[in-house]
Amino acid sequence: AYTVVPKTKRAYIAKYQPQSGKAVEDSNIPVLRLSELYLIAAEAAVKLNNNDKAVKYLDAIVSRANPEKTVQGKTVTLDDVLLERRKELFGEGHRFFDALRNHQTIVRKESTKEFPEIAETSHLKMVDESVSFDWNYYRVVLPIPKAEMNSNPNMQQNPTYGD
């Protein structure tokens, strides 16, 4: 879900709304949820080739969201877990880091076709460079500040930033 603010003509994800009469900044935004822990455990189980545990953890999330659905009796893949993470943790800032952690290409899709009412918002234009990039793109990791580099002679600057 999203909201378009008429005054600023900007679109925002409206997942966590403030209480009546409160500002958005006062919203109680969760930092870590139990469902995220289950999804972390399911991802780890998949990576350790332990399908029984992957099914156990992922099914807890899938069947809670939709009692008609289950992953029991299936082979759970990393893609299954990552898709469920995208749905369960939508708008919470996890997708980018999920892609980096799993060495995936980050693709930022233009959303104006699906949601024409946000086509005129002021912050949707992206430079070509940021539309798609690999997990090891040099700008994903920022340079270490010069003061930090100077304070520790054993420190090595992140790749492509020089000394």
From TrEMBL:
Keywords: Cell outer membrane, Membrane, Signal. The keyword Ligase does not apply. Pfam families: SusD_RagB (PF07980). Residues 15-161 form the RagB/SusD domain. Its main location: membrane. It is found in: Cell outer membrane. It comes from the Bacteria. SUPFAM superfamilies: TPR-like. InterPro entries: SusD_RagB_dom, TPR-like_helical_dom_sf. GO terms for cellular component: cell outer membrane. Belongs to the SusD family. This is RagB/SusD family nutrient uptake outer membrane protein.
